[in-house]
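Regression test case RT-17, inverse folding.

Input:
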């Protein structure tokens, strides 16, 4: 095995157990473990003669640490920052000054060196101490504090920098995390959503509309803050959905009696965010290209808007467009089985996997045995990979076959089975 990566908060006890497990695997001649030994040990011993120190060195180098002690120091530093233990941090950087400038998780990471890492958590005392000791990552730390919504920390770092005007793209970080407080702070210190040429900041819009996060009320508020600061959103049904503006959707429905049967392409879904719209089949869950407002509501977890659509007579089995090769035609139920909302549940954010969208559609009469063929490719941020094809599948089959299990809702699958859905 190669290319291990430390999690944001590694557990030293688990790493010690990993080293013991690796040693046992090496000694019994496991092919992968022996290959790891030969790849990462500068002078690999005979597998039968390997010692714990050999396994620890191999493990550390696979994590891109120079040695086992360096891996231990990384864990100790991160643990001390989480615990806000300034004495432990001082002790580590006094004994190992190089730690101030190296990534806390060893590999290049958005969480950065210790000062930046501490900014993610709002550890002001540690930040000030590291700054006094020579940490130079103040601007990076400021960006992370804003992104994480640590506003008192952001104010402190902004003052450390001499209260400069924010750089281009300062709104992108809090857009990605849907941080209302971070967005408010960035706007307060002069960040602009609209450039001097009157064009919206595309990077920020890409981060906001293409974010991994799902928090509709926060997204709605951020978009309204952009409007308050000069953003002129396109007057489209999909943008009304992004804004959570049912009043605007009412107007669109009054003007367009076919609104509830229309399909929208990916450029409609991501206006002002061209990088999000490069491939129709690339998605954070079920593809959204050529889909109805009900599919789009499911994709972005807009439950209230879905209820409004269904109350206005939308067919719960409305189908996505079908391409020239026969792919498409799936219903919104597919979009609830494999979705970005499920990713955050499974990634440990604490929300229960209540399958509320699946339940809503089934309660409103959605067919649990609708069939369709789908193409899908994960975005690069989720691993990329080839374009995959899933032919003639039901919603249950789509969920059972989908290769990236972290996007699949087990509770949705259970509900569909319960309501008579099959493969």
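Golden output:
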């Amino acid at each position: 095995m190669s290319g291990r990566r430390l999690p944001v908060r590694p557990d030293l006890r688990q790493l010690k157990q990993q080293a013991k497990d690796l040693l046992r695997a090496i000694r019994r001649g496991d092919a992968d473990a022996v290959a790891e030994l030969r790849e990462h040990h500068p002078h690999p011993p005979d597998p039968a003669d390997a010692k714990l120190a050999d396994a620890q060195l191999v493990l550390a180098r696979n994590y891109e640490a120079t040695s086992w002690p360096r891996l231990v120091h990384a864990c100790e530093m991160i643990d001390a920052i989480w615990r806000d233990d300034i004495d432990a941090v001082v002790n580590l950087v006094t004994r190992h000054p190089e730690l101030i400038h190296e990534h806390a998780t060893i590999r290049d990471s958005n969480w950065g060196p210790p000062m930046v890492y501490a900014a993610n958590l709002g550890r002001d005392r540690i930040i000030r101490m590291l700054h006094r000791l020579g940490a130079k990552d103040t601007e990076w730390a400021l960006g992370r504090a804003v992104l994480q919504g640590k506003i008192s920390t952001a104010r402190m770092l902004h003052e450390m920098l001499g209260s400069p005007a924010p750089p281009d793209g300062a709104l992108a970080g809090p857009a990605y995390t849907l941080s209302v407080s971070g967005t408010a702070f960035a706007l307060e210190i002069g960040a602009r959503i609209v450039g001097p040429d009157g064009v919206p900041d595309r990077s920020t819009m890409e981060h906001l509309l293409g974010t991994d996060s799902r928090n509709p009320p926060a997204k709605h508020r951020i978009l309204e803050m952009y409007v308050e600061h000069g953003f002129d959103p396109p007057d489209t049904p999909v943008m009304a959905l992004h804004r959570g503006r049912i009043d605007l959707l009412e107007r669109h429905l009054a003007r367009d009696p076919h609104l509830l049967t229309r399909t929208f392409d990916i450029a409609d879904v991501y206006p002002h965010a061209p990088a999000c719209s490069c491939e129709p089949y690339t998605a954070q869950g079920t593809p959204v290209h050529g889909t109805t407002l009900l599919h789009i509501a499911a994709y972005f977890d807009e439950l209230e808007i879905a209820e409004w659509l269904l109350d206005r007579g939308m067919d719960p089995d409305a189908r996505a467009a079908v391409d020239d090769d026969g792919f498409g035609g799936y219903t919104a139920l597919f979009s609830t089985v494999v979705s970005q909302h499920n990713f955050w549940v499974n990634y440990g954010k604490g929300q229960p996997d209540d399958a509320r969208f699946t339940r809503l559609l089934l309660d409103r009469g959605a067919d649990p045995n609708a069939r369709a063929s789908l193409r899908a490719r994960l975005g690069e941020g989720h691993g990329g990979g080839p374009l995959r094809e899933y032919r003639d599948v039901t919603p249950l089959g789509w969920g059972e076959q989908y290769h990236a299990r972290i996007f699949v809702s087990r509770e949705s699958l259970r509900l569909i089975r319960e309501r008579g859905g099959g493969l």
